[in-house]
Amino acid sequence: MVKSSLQTFINKVQAAGRISFGDVHRLQRGILPDGISAREEAELLLTLAQTVGRADRAFGDWFVAMMVDFVVWGMRPTGTVDAETATWLAPFLVGQRTTKTMRRLARELAAEADHGFTALPSPALSGASEGGTSAQVAGDLMPLAA
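Below the sequence we write its predicted structure tokens.
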């Protein structure tokens, strides 16, 4: 279930068209102090990251860290990004509204799930070699090479 305070926060930020440093602190301390706890919360934040016009760098750092923690370690099976989760994430990671933050998220998810397999779509990882992670397709899953 989504906290009403998160929905209120997102409505306010979208109306303003930007996420300030103060907004990030409100997210960290008051709205989601324990991180993301449900897919619905993650979806709201993924949509926000795609649609907000401007965001303080602190938002990208916090958002990527929280999403990696939730997706890789908070969902089953832990330590991997399975095919179902990758299908859920794909519209956010690849598509018309793919942002620098989303490409960074894809790289970080792949790097964190390095000990397992990830089924992340390769377009989310291609052309984003800043992190040095590469993915190769093997059936439905892409094993990661360091």
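Helices lie at 4-16, 21-31, 39-51, 57-73, 83-93, 100-112, 122-125.
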